[in-house]
Amino acid sequence: MTRGQFITFEGTEGVGKSTQLETARSTLEAAGVDVVVTREPGGTPMAEAIRELLLAPRDESVHSLTELLLMFAARAQHLHQRILPALERGSWVLCDRFTDATYAYQGGGRGVPAGHIAVLEQLVQGDLRPDHVILLDAPVDVGMARARDRSEPDRFEQEKAAFFQRIRDCYRQRAKDQPLRYHVVDAARPLDEVSGQVASLVRSFLG
Ligand code: Z5A
Questions:
Q1: From the alpha carbon of 97, which atom of ligand 1 is closest?
Q2: Measured between alpha carbons, how far is 155 from 192 in angstroms, rounded to an integer?
């Protein structure tokens, strides 16, 4: 049995990750691939409960290490209960965010040293890294405007534009540093163009 591929979707809020995950799912299913779609934080009942803890707006200020450890607690559960079993049975896993989001949000956004994140990454994941990271990149105000129409902002969405700018800068730097793993898509383009680019990228992963 050949191991499935692990593909993650990243970017600042509202850039279209959920939308493009569906493009990737339908492209792969049309090619006969068994696909598992999931998200972080979340993906199992317990990890979804941790997601609720993380996203709930609260009066108490949340320490950056508390946030970091909860992200990896949810990830350990998700990885071992859901992602690894799916990859091992040959399914492809499409995940809305993964550890690259931790480097961008907790690292770039909150200022946690990358070395601390790397220690937890190795502890929780061993050598597992996404095979491909699709970075949907758009100016912060474009994503914020797209996300604005939704319900009450969560704890992350309450942050200011400067926080999301640091996150975007961090993602773009990581894409420059890891050009084989990262695929940058201009997410400010009209929806049909972005979907077309994501579909052809995903087809190229089929080999
Ligand atoms: N987080 C973290 O801090 N550390 C971590 O390690 C992880 C996560 C894993 C929850 O993530 C929060 O967790 C997140 C980071 C943190 N906080 N923030 N911000 P999330 O992924 O669930 O939340 P999100 O980033 O806010 O995702 P989102 O708002 O759901 O956005 P999206 O999935 O990228 O966008 P969308 O729902 O596909 O599209 C938004 C709207 O734009 C929708 O109406 C679309 O129809 C429209 N759209 C999409 N593409 C286009 C184009 N090209 N043109 C026009 N309109 C478009």
A1: 9
A2: 31
1 within a domain of the structure (yes/no): no
Separation of 14 CA from ligand 1 center, angstroms? 4
* 193 occurs within a structural domain: yes
pLDDT tens for residues 23-58?
999 999 999 999 999 999 999 999 999 999 999 999
User: Which pTM value belongs to this model?
Assistant: 0.97
**Å from CA of 143 to ligand 1 middle:** 8
Q: Residue 112's domain is classified under what CATH number? A: 3.40.50.300
| Enclosing domain of residue 115 | 6-205
Q: Is the CB of 146 under 6 A from ligand 1?
A: yes
SS3 (DSSP) at 135? strand
Distance CA 32, CA 105 (A): 35
